[in-house]
Structure formats: structure tokens, C-alpha cells
Write a structure and sequence with these properties.
Elements: H1 4-7, H2 12-18, E1 47-51, E2 54-57, H3 58-69, H4 80-102, H5 109-132, H6 138-149, E3 153-163, H7 166-177, H8 182-189, H9 211-218, E4 230-232, E5 235-247, H10 252-278
Antiparallel strand pairs: 1-2, 3-5, 4-5
Length: 290
């Protein structure tokens, strides 16, 4: 059975709606009698449809399309036929939505919780955008660049052997300690796609590696391998570091956007910390796990 969170995922909803009939939308018709009783009258030129007396606006539709297509409407990358199909989807969704309200599905506890969580996420995201989108001065950006981005950085070239169990990983480490070749074992034992290259991965900065893997790589010198298995969500790894290299810093103009992102993250973190400091937060003991 699908979980409620998965079932009502916003990402899944457009596909669900799209699965319904995608017939072209009906031709504009005279205003139905029910439209005269619509509860929230809007200027006629702002309307795109009236469904069972519910006025749907062009702005509503634009928002639906941009969410559905990843802002392709905003970027001007939708043709007339695509828009007609999207309007059909939009109408289908409204019909299903109205039926759901009539049946009281919005009052079903599991559904109400999901709706409330999405509402909180949307409002929190909007609030965060208002905080981070306040402009920074040129001096702010240059100071962030000097502090975080103006120094050379190290990149690491690891290889690994990925297996499913800790026991398998420890057996491989024993073989390595007895003189077995890392690349040959990777080709024989690793379940990762990199096995064909002897476990070799790409060049990574520390920030690009997941924490357990990063900790293992940073603890190694070139040519060394991990003497303890490294556990991640992918399985159990034996990690070897092939090489490191120094990467020169980018010029300020090339790093301007990165500097802005750093400042935005810092500003948001300070704001959240201030909220935590002035708020009363009580965590019920023993209830941390849902």
C-alpha cells in the first residue's frame, strides 16, 4: 500500500492528473447560470474557466503550468498545443478536486495532515525566500569571496570497492592486507558501476562527498586504503585514495553567485538561530522517533 506522503506528493500529482483524459478543453461557451452564483466574482478578462460555478483565473492556471512544467511557461517554451493539453489537465484536476471536497476527503485525518504539511512547507519556503533575497552590497560579496572562495582547494581522486555486507567488506580488507591488488578485487567484487575501472571514481571536493565517505577519504594519504569498512546508504565500502590535486580559486566575477549563495545561507542560518533563541521549544522525551 502506498504511504500517504507518497500518494499525495506534489511531484506525483501532475502525473496522476495527466493520466486522466487529455481531450482538448471545451470551446468557450456562454456563461452558465451557476456562474452567476459564483462566490468570488472576478473580472471576466481574468478568468480562464468556470467549473460548477467556481471561477478559475489565468493566474491560477499560470501557477499550475509553471509547477507542472518546471517554469517552461515562464521561459516561453510552450506551444499552443501544449497549453491546450495543460488546460485539459488543469480542468480535470479541478473536477477531481471539487469531487474530493464534496466527499469530505479534505477532512480525512491522513489527508489533512499531508495538506497541512504542504501548506507549512510552502509558507516556510516563501518566508525563507524573503529573508535571503534581500540584496547584498558589493563589499559583502567581496568579503565572502575573500573568506571562503579565494584560496586554492584540494580535490581528491578515490576509488572504492562496494559490497552489500560488512562481512564481505572485512574479508576484502583481509585480502588486501595479504597483498591482493585493489583494482583486481574491485573488478571482481564491487557491485558499483565503477568496478569496470577498478573502482576508480571522479575527482571530488570534500563538499561533494557524503559524510562517511568523505571522512574516510580525508583520513587517507595517496596510495592508502581504509582498514575499516565504511558504511553508507549504498552499502559497505573499502576506500582507497589515488591522488590529490590543488585547484586554483576562481576569479571573483566567476564566483559572485557562489559568494551570494554563501551569504544567503549564513543569513538564513542566523535568522533561524534567532528564532530558536526567542522561542520556547519543548521536545517530549522518548518521542523523537515518529
Amino acid at each position: 500500500m502506498l504511504s500517504m506522503t507518497r500518494l499525495f506528493s506534489p511531484a506525483a500529482l501532475p502525473g496522476l492528473v495527466f493520466a486522466f483524459m487529455l481531450a482538448p478543453p471545451p470551446a468557450p461557451a456562454a456563461e452558465p447560470a451557476s456562474a452567476r452564483n459564483a462566490t468570488s466574482p472576478k473580472p471576466q478578462d481574468d478568468l480562464i474557466a468556470i467549473i460548477n460555478g467556481k471561477a478559475l483565473t489565468k493566474q491560477d492556471f499560470r501557477t499550475f503550468v509553471n509547477i507542472r512544467t518546471g517554469n517552461r511557461l515562464q521561459d516561453g517554451r510552450l506551444n499552443t498545443d501544449q497549453l491546450r493539453r495543460l488546460l485539459s489537465e488543469y480542468i480535470n484536476r479541478e473536477l477531481i478536486y471539487q469531487e474530493a471536497l464534496e466527499k469530505g476527503y479534505d477532512k480525512v485525518p491522513e489527508v489533512a495532515i499531508v495538506i497541512d504539511n504542504h501548506r507549512r512547507n510552502i509558507l516556510a519556503s516563501f518566508s525563507a525566500q524573503q529573508i535571503i533575497n534581500q540584496p547584498f552590497t558589493e563589499e559583502d560579496l567581496r568579503q565572502a569571496y575573500e573568506k571562503y572562495l579565494s584560496k586554492p582547494t584540494l580535490e581528491y581522486l578515490p576509488r572504492h570497492i562496494l559490497v552489500r555486507t560488512e562481512e564481505e567488506a572485512r574479508e576484502i580488507i583481509q585480502q588486501l592486507e595479504q597483498g591482493a591488488d585493489f583494482e583486481a578485487l574491485a573488478k571482481q567484487k564491487s557491485i558499483d558501476a565503477s568496478s569496470k575501472d577498478g573502482g576508480r571514481l571522479s575527482w571530488f571536493s570534500p563538499q561533494e562527498m557524503i559524510p562517511p565517505f568523505r571522512a574516510a577519504v580525508l583520513a587517507l594519504k595517496p596510495g592508502d586504503y581504509s582498514r575499516e569498512p565504511v558504511h553508507t546508504r549504498f552499502g559497505w565500502h573499502i576506500v582507497k585514495l589515488d591522488a590529490t590535486r590543488e585547484v586554483p580559486p576562481p576569479p571573483f566575477e566567476a564566483a559572485r553567485d557562489k559568494a551570494r549563495q554563501i551569504l544567503q545561507n549564513e543569513r538564513l542560518a542566523r535568522h533561524i538561530e534567532a528564532l530558536r533563541q526567542k522561542s520556547e521549544i519543548q521536545i517530549v522525551q522518548g518521542q523523537q522517533n515518529p
